[in-house]
Specification:
This protein is an alpha+beta fold. Helix content is 52%, strand content 9%.
């Protein structure tokens, strides 16, 4: 099956790739497009990034281009920058022993494309495309596996997974993002090499989860990580058997890719719904998620826990929606996001149809926070100089509840009058 580079590769990328190809071949070297970009092209998709391989060594590549970054020069990888776009170029390699189950002990440069392709993880990723001739090099039947939507290691799966403990997790992630199936022997090897998977860094595991969140079916990744017992390798506090809540996982697939915190909350609520906020924070910090994603995830996890425990999900009063959900949303996100109709609608995976009620309330622009009140602590100090400052919080909280119930009450004179009434009760 010919690859239609003209329609699948944007013109500026294609021009860059042809420029790199021409420079390397003009200097007497080989050059091929490889890896995920070729897999995407075979599947009729526009690649997200482009990687090339060559028999030129990094120092030889660097002589041919003006801007080259040493991104992984110890592994033979440099990045060519053309018009502010990055293209990774890696010298043919022969990986030696992997004694730590994470990285090869050392890398030797190879001399042939075949040597380079056979060291790769899966058949679907061991394809090379010659941009000059349009020839697809497929020595491991990767194209057939792509057509059959199959994930299969090159050679013995236990050996390949023992080399790098991340590979089993990558297999699960590809199954999720590509909607592929894992070949039986490859799947068995996931179980048999867990002792190697345990050696990978938490950052690499976290990165695979985040990559799955960018796909169309992140729920499948969470399901597979649960079924294969991968979560428990890194989170031993979880039960030995996990049965994700399907109704929660389905919502994960409906969540905006921009809301990583919500994705995390849904993912972990599906497998650990009884967790406290402190326990979830421990999980997210253990897995090295960023501080911001952790904070966002905790807020949304609290929302989901509260909402799912509500025995009457059909109708919730406006006061509750404002105090327990919209006010925390405004407090937490107003500095980073423009909170508008679109933002609130993105919370549909939590609230279902009630999200329309939330949108309606938000668009009315009601006061939600203490800072929205027309009266503040300074006003209390000026008007009630004998009131201990320790009572300000109680008075203002009561005023906020008042305006949450009735936004029209948020005017200075009325709030001052209500303050006087509250203070008289406090003094008694």
């Amino acid at each position: 099956m010919p690859i239609d580079t003209q329609s699948l590769i944007p013109k500026f990328n294609l021009n860059h790739l042809l420029q790199i190809n021409s420079a390397l071949k003009g200097a007497g070297f080989e050059c091929y497009l490889v890896g995920g970009s070729v897999r995407d092209l075979v599947m009729g998709k526009i690649p997200k990034e482009y990687d090339l391989t060559t028999n030129a060594e990094p120092k030889q590549v660097k002589r041919l281009f003006r801007t080259v970054i040493d991104t992984g020069i110890e592994h033979g990888t440099v990045t060519i920058v053309l018009d502010k776009v990055n293209y990774e170029v890696t010298t043919y390699r022969i990986d030696k022993d992997y004694t730590d189950g994470r990285r090869p002990d050392h890398v030797e440069f190879g001399t042939t494309l075949s040597e380079d392709l056979k060291r790769r993880d899966f058949t679907m990723n061991a394809l090379a495309f010659d941009l000059s001739t349009g020839i697809l090099v497929d020595e491991h039947f990767g194209q057939k596996d792509i057509q059959e939507r199959t994930i299969r290691t090159i050679g013995n799966p236990i050996k390949r997974f023992s080399e790098d403990g991340l590979r089993p997790i990558r297999a699960l992630r590809f199954a999720s993002t590509l909607d592929f199936f894992i070949e039986n022997e490859t799947k068995k090897a996931i179980h048999e090499t867990k002792h190697v998977t345990k050696k990978i860094s938490l950052e690499r595991f976290q990165d695979e989860i985040l990559k799955s969140f960018m796909g169309q079916n992140p729920a499948r990744m969470i399901q597979l990580l649960s079924e294969e017992g991968i979560f428990q390798i890194f989170l031993p506090q979880l039960p030995t058997e996990l049965n994700p809540k399907k109704n929660i996982l389905e919502r994960l697939n409906q969540t905006s890719k921009e809301f990583i915190g919500l994705q995390l909350a849904l993912a972990f609520y599906s497998i650990a719904d009884k967790s406290t906020a402190k326990e979830l924070e421990s999980i997210l910090r253990t897995l090295k998620f960023s501080g911001q994603n952790t904070k966002d995830g905790l807020l949304f996890f609290e929302f989901i826990s509260k909402w799912e425990s509500n025995p009457n999900l059909i109708k919730v009063d406006d006061f509750t929606l404002k105090k327990e959900y919209l006010a925390p949303v405004k407090r937490h996100f107003q500095a980073r996001y423009q909170i508008n109709r679109e933002f609130i609608l993105n919370l549909q995976p939590i609230f279902g149809d009630t999200v329309n009620q939330l949108v309606q309330i938000w668009e009315e622009g009601p006061p939600l926070l203490l800072t929205d009140l027309k009266l503040n602590g300074n006003h209390l100090s000026e008007t009630f100089p004998d009131l201990p400052k320790t009572n300000y919080g109680s008075v203002l909280a009561n005023l906020l509840d008042l305006v949450l119930h009735s936004p029209k009450e948020n005017e200075y004179s009325g709030l001052l009058r209500h303050s006087a009434q509250l203070i008289s009760k406090l003094i008694k």
